Amino acid sequence: MRGTRAAKRYAGALLGLASELKKTDEVAADMQLIHASVKSSIDLNLFFRSPIIDREKKRRAIDAIFKGRVSELTGHFLFLLIDKGREALADAIAVEFGVLHDEMLGIANVNLKAAYDLDKEDSEKVKSKLERLTGSKVRISFSIDRSLVGGFLAQVGDTVYDGSVRRQLEILKYQLGGT
Q1: Can you tell me the distance from the alpha carbon of 107 to that of 109, in angstroms, rounded to the nearest whole number?
Q2: Is there a contact between 145 and 115 (Cβ–Cβ < 8 Å)?
Q3: In whole angstroms, how far apart are CA 70 and each of 48, 102, 142?
Q4: What Rg, from alpha-carbon coordinates, does the chain have?
Q5: Could you tell me how far CA 126 lies from the centroid of its own chain?
Q6: How far apart are CA 139 and CA 112, in angstroms?
Q7: Consecutive H or E run containing 127
């Protein structure tokens, strides 16, 4: 879940502090753990979002769940979210932190859809091509889209690179004077 401006601001502030303290990789791992925990547990997700549970109970529960599993900085950050009544944003903040951390490292996250599973050689070719296009290292999340006849669609942020057979046929039709 990506989200609100508030989540982006909190993620940016946490990244800034972690960077100052030279703990960005540690906090990034913590944020991945928090995101995975919230995503895999409906109860934890509802717990973070519940306005009924008082702050002290939430602090004790978060301490019990994450103590020893996340850094001290991340633990204090979670307590800050609870104190500010923003714990419902924890998952969105974790996702935004990951995005900002990747940007800081010069990594572009790519959603790649192909008509079939790419073998290792094809994957490397596509990755190399996308790295040249974006000017960044890329991390690819792959999915199969049976609606594609062949080729692929790659989304990097708001940009879509359409290397599908359908698109190539549209271009050819246009060049041959079709409408």
Answers
A1: 6
A2: yes
A3: 17, 20, 29
A4: 21
A5: 21
A6: 10
A7: helix 120-134
pLDDT, tens digit (0-9, with 9 covering 90-100), for 138-178 = 998 888 988 887 888 888 878 888 888 888 888 888 888 86
> Residue 69 CB: number of other CB atoms within 10 A?
12
Nearest CA among 108, 84, 96, 82 for reference residue 1: 96
CA distances (Å), 9 to each of 3, 16, 74, 92, 100, in order? 11, 10, 16, 11, 11
Could you tell me the strand order of the sheet in which 137-144 lies?
137-144, 107-114, 152-156, 159-162
Under DSSP, the state recorded for 119 is P
**Contact (CB, 8 A) for 141 and 130:** no
Chain CA centroid to CA 153, Å: 19
Summarised one tens digit per residue, pLDDT across range 97-144 is 999 999 999 998 889 998 888 888 988 988 898 899 888 899 988 889
Give the three-class secondary structure for 141.
strand
